[in-house]
Every structure is written in structure tokens, then in C-alpha cells.
Backbone:
């Protein structure tokens, strides 16, 4: 059984929708156990993360970077970092923001740096830009390092973030689960 944990923050619910899609995508791979961990519970649930084969990081982009809440939690993982407890776990990331760019790449790079400090193995999105699937456009934002979505600063709902962006999140979750399964042998 490959264990995939998704640790995420969402202030207003948009990134939560993306996190749920990532979880659904990971769970679609047979033999995968998925845990969705809101960052507010991540400290109490650290054993879930410690036991995971893969950890996927998710945060909205606030002021061009991960949210303060995500960063505060990330700093608490220094306790794990000291013993390199997450070494060789698979890692990936996703972010949602109000604008087309909004500096989402910088948010992903913060997650990447966190993963590198923990000696984790970063998995890319693996979906070509503007891939059409089931009537949706996946990776319309042409990200490669992870999944991006836009919320247009409107309330979260069935069309916000865009269904194609949500499907992009599911594709990331699926890929991480597949890679984790291969990696575990
Ligand atoms: C404090 C704050 C800072 C923000 N900074 C950015 C930003 O740098 N770039 C951007 O595109 N959107 C920015 N936004 C918009 C959010 O990314 C957007 O509303 C997103 O959907 C919030 O996700 P959430 O609902 O998961 O919290 C910001 C919003 C807030 C509240």
C-alpha cells in the first residue's frame, strides 16, 4: 500500500477544492491510501506525514508566496529536518491564486525548497500545457513543477477554480500516486 499525504492550507476554500481534487486523483490509483491534512491539524497529525511515502504540499499564493499559515507550519518541520526523517519521500506541490500569474511559481519554489531541505524527491506535473481531456483543458497555465489554479477572486464553487484547473490537480495526485507506487517497487 502506497501512502500519500496531502498537507494544505486554504484561507477561503479555493485551495481546499484543489486539495480535494489532488486527493481524488491519488486515490484513483489502486493500492493507494490517501490522507488529506489541513495545515491547522498537521502538527497533531505529524505521524501520518512521518509514515507517508509521499507528501504533497498545497497553499494559496498570498503576497507572492505560500500563506503565512503554511510557512509557520513548514518551519515546525525543522524538528523532522534535524533527523532527516522525510529523506527519500516523494514530494510535489500545488497552489491556487486570484490572478493568472500572481507569482504562483514562487509559491511552488518555496515548497520545492522545503522538500529539498528534507532530502525529498520532487515530482513534476507531467501534463503538457493545454492538454484536452474529457472536454476540459488541463494545465492551461502551463506549469511544469506542480499544479496551478486560478480563483479569479470570486467565491469558491463548482466552476471556481475552473474545472480544468481542478482536473489538473487530480492529474498531479494521480501522477504522484503512480510514481510512489513505482518507487516503492
Ligand atoms: C493576503 C492575501 C494575499 C494575496 N496575494 C495574492 C498574490 O500574491 N497573487 C495572487 O494572484 N493572488 C493573491 N491573493 C488572492 C488569493 O490567492 C486568492 O483569493 C485565493 O483564491 C485564495 O485561496 P484560498 O481560498 O484557498 O485561501 C491574495 C489573497 C490574500 C487574502
Residues:
Amino acid at each position: 500500500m502506497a501512502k500519500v499525504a496531502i498537507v494544505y492550507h486554504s484561507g477561503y476554500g479555493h485551495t481546499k477544492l484543489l486539495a480535494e481534487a489532488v486527493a481524488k486523483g491519488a486515490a484513483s490509483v489502486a493500492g493507494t491510501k490517501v490522507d488529506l491534512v489541513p495545515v491547522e491539524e498537521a502538527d497533531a497529525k505529524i505521524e501520518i506525514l512521518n509514515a507517508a511515502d509521499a507528501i504533497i504540499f498545497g497553499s494559496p499564493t498570498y503576497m507572492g508566496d505560500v500563506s503565512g499559515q503554511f510557512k509557520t507550519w513548514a518551519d515546525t518541520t525543522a524538528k523532522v529536518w534535524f533527523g532527516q526523517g522525510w529523506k527519500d519521500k516523494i514530494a510535489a506541490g500545488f497552489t491556487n491564486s486570484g490572478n493568472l500569474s500572481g507569482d504562483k511559481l514562487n509559491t511552488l519554489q518555496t515548497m520545492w525548497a522545503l522538500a529539498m531541505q528534507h532530502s525529498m524527491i520532487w515530482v513534476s506535473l507531467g501534463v503538457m500545457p493545454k492538454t484536452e481531456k474529457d472536454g476540459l483543458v488541463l494545465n492551461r497555465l502551463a506549469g511544469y513543477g506542480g499544479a496551478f489554479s486560478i480563483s479569479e477572486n470570486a467565491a469558491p464553487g463548482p466552476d471556481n477554480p475552473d474545472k480544468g484547473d481542478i482536473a489538473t490537480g487530480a492529474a498531479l495526485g494521480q501522477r504522484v500516486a503512480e510514481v510512489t507506487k513505482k518507487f516503492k517497487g
About this structure: The longest helix spans residues 163-184. Residues 161 and 170 are 13 Å apart (CA to CA). Residues 2-184 form a domain with the Rossmann fold fold (CATH 3.40.50.360).
